[in-house]
Amino acid sequence: MKLFTQLALVTAIATSGSAFAMQTMNDSDLSATTGQDGITILIAPPKLTGAQQTSLGVTQTNGILIGAAVLHDKDGIVDATNTAGTSGGAIIIGDAKQANSANTAGTQLGIFGSTPISVAIDASGGGAAGTVSGSSPVLNVKLGLPADLLIRTGDISVDGSNRGAIAVGAAGATAANAAVGGTTGNAVKVLNSMDIALGGATMNIQLGHTPQGAFINAAGTITGGLSIANLSVHDATYDGVSLGGDLGVSRLTVTDTGSANLTLNAGITVTKDVGTLWGGAASAGGLVITTAGNASDIMLQNVTLGSANSTLGDLQLINVQSAGTHIAIQGH
């Protein structure tokens, strides 16, 4: 009996294999079976120790820290009616002390998450599936973000620009020469560091032709909504006296109207003339963000003026319909 059972099993396996061997497979089926087409890249930031998690105040297991990013406005304020001065200035994002050792230390930038960032790269000729036709080739790059992604903006300060003092060459603009260049060492903080929770979203980038209608398409569902913690604008002086008051919001949350989550839907393009967006006169180029999707609810918790004990309460904006809004970012 055991012999008959073994023969039946062998016969079933052989018959199954023969049946599959007789089926034809096109390129799409073969790709799905073997995974031979396209490129997938997984990016895992460095592992954080328990001590680092505690000191940074994060629960994510991985993260990248950036000391500071400095944007130099080389010609300063060009408006002739403004008497504040026209010397070059610098916007410091992160720890101002790393732009010049004379500055007060601040919060660094950080990107944190517990799973890798995925990058899926594919190319198409723009024709129908399974054909070699098409005259609109496109390179498609899809980014998948960790579900617990946290972006820490770092403090934002303004300082005088002293970029000429940084030796740019073999050594580069490193922390070793920050003490003698980068900024003038008179940094004033204007915005405290914020934590932005933006997990579970995807960003699809198309180069060449853009059948999705935009250079970058941001999509996905953010569980719990878009959250920005510790939003605080700092006013360093009042009537020449250094008082250091803040306009603060402990947490700003954006969700779909009537929902606990936020549906992310926005297109990002780079254009040579942003004036065409609203039918205006010819303008310089820039990066344009166009919003789409559902109406939203916005909650600002614990709004304060001047100090933490001057509390206005919570501010709620309901059913905000902003789909179709264009946000253009330009240099001048």
UniProtKB/TrEMBL annotation:
Q: By its UniProt entry, which Pfam families does this protein fall under?
A: DUF6160 (PF19657)
Q: For this UniProt entry, which residues form the secretion signal?
A: 1-21
| The keyword Signal belongs to this UniProt entry's keyword annotation | yes
Its keywords, alphabetically, are: Signal
Domain DUF6160, by residue range, is: 1-44
Put simply, this protein is called DUF6160 domain-containing protein
Give the classification, highest ranks.
Bacteria, Pseudomonadati, Pseudomonadota, Gammaproteobacteria, Moraxellales
